[in-house]
Write a structure and sequence with these properties.
One of its GO terms (cellular component) is primosome complex. The chain folds into four domains: 87 residues, Alpha-Beta Complex (DNA Primase, Chain A); 137 residues, DNA primase, catalytic core, N-terminal domain (DNA primase DNAg catalytic core, N-terminal domain); 183 residues, Dna Topoisomerase Vi A Subunit, Chain: A, domain 2 (3-Layer(aba) Sandwich), CATH 3.40.1360.10; 79 residues, no CATH class. Strand 9 and strand 10 form a beta hairpin. The protein starts with a helix and ends with a helix. By secondary structure, it is an alpha+beta fold. The protein is built from 26 helices and 16 strands. Helix 20 packs antiparallel against helix 25.
Length: 598
C-alpha cells in the first residue's frame, strides 16, 4: 500500500488538486491563496509544486495532497486514497480496511442514493408524481433543473419506499438510522417521513446525499402538517453544516469569489437556473458557524439575499458577528418592497435582480438604512429604536476603523455626536468577542526553541542560502558555524548541503531526518515565495554573516572580560598578557566588521 501511495503522489500534481478547491495564484516558484482553513485577507497559504506540499504561514497547517483532502473534505485517509487513485491512473490492489464508522457512513450514503433515485423517478416518470411535477413546472422550474438537483416526490404511501429498499437488501436498522423512516407506534412498521411531499436531496459539497428536505404541495390534503420538514440528525447529516446547492455552485463561488446567501431551496434554484450560479441556501434566516467555516474555504464575500427583516433577530445578529470575525466582506442584495424573495424577483424581472446584485450594499449600511426607513430619527422614540437595533451590530464590528466610521455615520443620521453614540454603545458591549477556533494542526513544528538574535540570524542565513540558484556552492559559508550553531535543528540541513553536489528540493527533503523535514519545508516555501536577485542575495549573506560573527565575538569578549578580572585578582601576569592580547585581537576584528557595515 505504501508503494501505491507514493505512486499516486508521483503521478498527480498537488497544485492541480488544490486548485479545484482554492483559487491559487502563481508567486515566484510557488502558488498562493487565502488559507481555506482559517479566515484571512492576505494570502499566506502556499503550495509548492517542487516539494508537492502545502503550508499556511498564518495558522501553521501543512501537509501533502492526502492530508489536504482529509482536512478540506473532512474524509478519512482511505477515502482520500480512493478519490486520488483514479486521477493518478492507479488501480488499488489492496484496500485499506473500513472502520466501523466508515461502514456506517457507506451504508447510509448508499441508502440515500437509492432513496433520491426513487423519489426522482416518481416525480419525473410515474403517474403518482404528476401533481407534483405540474406544480414545479408551473413554478418555472425546468426538467433539466429537476434532474440536475435530483428533486423528487414521495407518494402518499408509507410502505412504497420501504418495500423498494427492502428488496434492494437494506436492513431495517440501517433504514431507521438513515433518518428517512420513522417507526409507527401502532403497528411498529416503518413509514416514509416525507410521504406526499416534494423532496430535495441535501448534499455535501462533494455531492454525496446526506439527508432530505420535504415540502407539502399546495394541493395536498395534509395542510395541517408542517409545510417543511428535514431529515433528523444522523451519523452523516447535521443541519448546522449543510448548505443547499453548494455541490453545484462551489466552482462559481470560488471563481467569482462571492456567494449569494438565500433562505430556501426555490430561492436558490431559480437564480441558479437563470445563470446566477454562485448561490446557496442556508434553509433559514441565520447561518451557523459551521456553514461559515465551510463557505470560507471558497470565498471571502457574502451577499445576503434573505428576508428584509432578518436583521431583527438575535440569531441573525450572532451570524453576522461570526461572519465578520472570520473576515468576510458582508453585503446585502436589496429587493425592497417590490419582491418578497429571490425566487419571485427572478421570475418577474431577471434584469432587476442582476442590477440589484451589482448594487449590493455593505451589511452595516443596510442595517442603518433599514432602521431609518421604519423609524423617525427626528423623534426621541425613533432615535431610541434605531440605536437599540443598530448598536448591537456596530459594537461587534471587528475592525476598529470601520466600527468608528459607522458610529460617525449613525451619529450623523440621527443628529447626534459620535461621542454620544459611542457612550450609548457601551450598554450593548456586555459580551466577549467571539473567538473562532479551527480544526487544524497547531503551529508547533517550526517554532524556534531559542529566541536569541543568533538563532534569528542563523535562520536568515540558511534561508538566503537555500533560496539561492546554487545553494550547494553558497553553503560552504556555513561550514565554520557547524560547531557553534545555536539551533541544532539546522545542523542536519547544513550537513546535507555540504555533502551533495547538486540540489534537487524534493530529493533533498526526503533524505533529511523526518524531524527536520518540516523546518526545511517551511524555509523552502518562504524563500521561493519571495525570490531576490543574486547580487542582493550575496550582499545579504555577507551582512548576515557579519551579524553572526559580531554576536560570537561579543559573547567571547564577555567571557574574556570575566577571565581578565579573575586573573587581575590572582595577579597572574603571564596568563593575563595572553588573554588581553586575544581580547585586543577580537576588538580589532569587531571594529573591522562594524566599519564594513557602516
Amino acid at each position: 500500500m505504501d508503494n501505491q501511495v507514493e505512486e499516486i503522489k508521483s503521478k498527480i500534481n498537488i497544485v492541480d488538486i488544490i486548485n479545484r478547491y482554492v483559487a491559487l495564484k502563481k508567486r515566484g516558484h510557488n502558488h498562493i491563496a487565502c488559507c481555506p482553513f482559517h479566515g484571512e485577507k492576505t494570502p499566506s497559504f502556499t503550495v509548492s509544486e517542487e516539494l508537492q506540499i502545502y503550508k499556511c504561514f498564518g495558522c501553521g497547517v501543512s501537509g501533502d495532497v492526502f492530508s489536504f483532502l482529509e482536512n478540506f473534505e473532512k474524509i478519512s485517509f482511505r477515502e482520500a486514497l480512493e478519490e486520488l487513485a483514479p486521477l493518478a491512473g492507479v488501480t488499488l490492489t489492496k484496500s485499506v480496511a473500513f472502520t466501523k464508522e466508515e461502514l456506517v457512513k457507506k451504508t447510509l450514503l448508499s441508502i440515500n442514493e437509492q432513496v433520491a433515485k426513487f423519489y426522482n423517478y416518481i416525480l419525473l416518470s410515474h403517474p403518482l408524481g404528476k401533481p407534483a411535477l405540474d406544480y414545479v413546472l408551473n413554478r418555472g422550474i425546468t426538467l433539466k433543473t429537476l434532474k440536475e438537483f435530483n428533486i423528487g416526490f414521495s407518494p402518499q404511501n408509507p410502505q412504497f419506499l420501504v418495500n423498494f429498499l427492502t428488496k434492494k437488501g437494506f436492513k431495517t436498522n440501517d433504514l431507521i438510522a438513515s433518518g428517512t423512516f420513522g417507526v409507527s407506534q401502532y403497528n411498529h412498521r416503518l413509514y416514509d417521513r416525507f410521504q406526499d411531499r416534494l423532496v430535495f436531496p441535501l448534499s455535501n459539497f462533494r455531492g454525496q446525499i446526506l439527508g432530505f428536505s420535504g415540502r407539502i404541495l399546495p394541493s395536498s390534503k395534509n395542510q395541517n402538517l408542517a409545510k417543511y420538514i428535514n431529515s433528523p440528525e444522523t451519523e452523516i447529516y447535521h443541519k448546522s453544516n449543510n448548505l443547499f446547492g453548494l455541490h453545484l455552485s462551489k466552482e462559481a463561488v470560488k471563481n467569482q469569489n462571492s456567494v449569494i446567501i438565500t433562505e430556501g431551496e426555490f430561492d436558490m434554484i431559480s437564480p441558479y437556473q437563470a445563470g446566477i450560479k454562485n448561490i446557496v441556501a442556508i434553509k433559514g434566516t441565520a447561518f451557523t458557524e459551521d456553514q461559515l467555516h465551510l463557505l470560507r474555504r471558497f470565498t471571502d464575500t457574502l451577499i445576503l439575499a434573505l428576508d428584509s427583516d432578518f436583521a431583527g433577530s438575535n440569531a441573525a445578529r450572532k451570524s453576522i458577528e461570526l461572519a465578520d470575525s472570520l473576515d468576510f466582506d458582508i453585503k446585502v442584495l436589496v429587493l425592497g418592497d417590490k419582491y418578497k424573495d429571490p425566487d419571485e424577483a427572478i421570475k418577474a424581472d431577471l434584469e432587476f435582480f442582476k442590477k440589484q446584485l451589482d448594487k449590493a450594499i455593505p451589511i452595516w449600511d443596510f442595517i442603518i438604512n433599514s432602521q431609518l426607513k421604519i423609524n423617525d430619527p427626528n423623534t426621541i422614540k425613533g432615535k431610541k429604536e434605531i440605536l437599540s437595533i443598530v448598536l448591537p451590530f456596530l459594537i461587534k464590528i471587528k475592525n476598529s476603523v470601520i466600527r468608528s466610521d459607522y458610529f460617525k455615520k449613525l451619529a450623523d443620521e440621527i443628529g447626534s455626536s459620535q461621542e454620544a453614540v459611542f457612550e450609548e454603545s457601551k450598554k450593548y458591549d456586555n459580551t466577549t468577542k467571539t473567538n473562532i477556533t479551527f480544526p487544524i494542526t497547531p503551529k508547533t513544528d517550526d517554532q524556534a526553541p531559542d529566541p536569541s538574535k543568533t538563532v534569528k540570524f542563523e535562520e536568515l542565513l540558511l534561508k538566503l542560502i537555500i533560496g539561492a540558484r546554487n545553494p550547494v556552492k553558497l553553503a560552504q559559508k556555513l561550514k565554520k558555524y557547524l560547531e557553534t550553531i545555536k539551533d541544532r535543528r539546522f545542523i542536519p540541513i547544513i550537513q546535507q548541503l555540504l555533502s551533495i553536489d547538486t540540489f534537487e528540493p524534493k530529493d533533498f527533503q526526503s533524505n533529511l531526518p523526518s524531524e527536520n523535514q518540516a523546518i526545511f519545508q517551511s524555509i523552502f516555501l518562504e524563500v521561493t515565495n519571495n525570490p531576490i536577485d543574486s547580487h542582493t542575495r550575496l550582499l545579504e549573506v555577507q551582512k548576515t554573516i557579519d551579524q553572526i560573527d559580531s554576536i560570537h565575538i561579543k559573547d567571547k569578549l564577555n567571557l574574556l572580560n570575566q577571565q581578565i578580572a579573575k586573573l587581575e585578582e590572582q595577579e597572574n601576569e603571564v596568563e593575563l598578557e595572553a588573554v588581553e592580547k586575544e581580547y585586543n585581537q577580537l576588538v580589532h576584528q569587531l571594529g573591522k566588521i562594524q566599519t564594513k557595515r557602516n
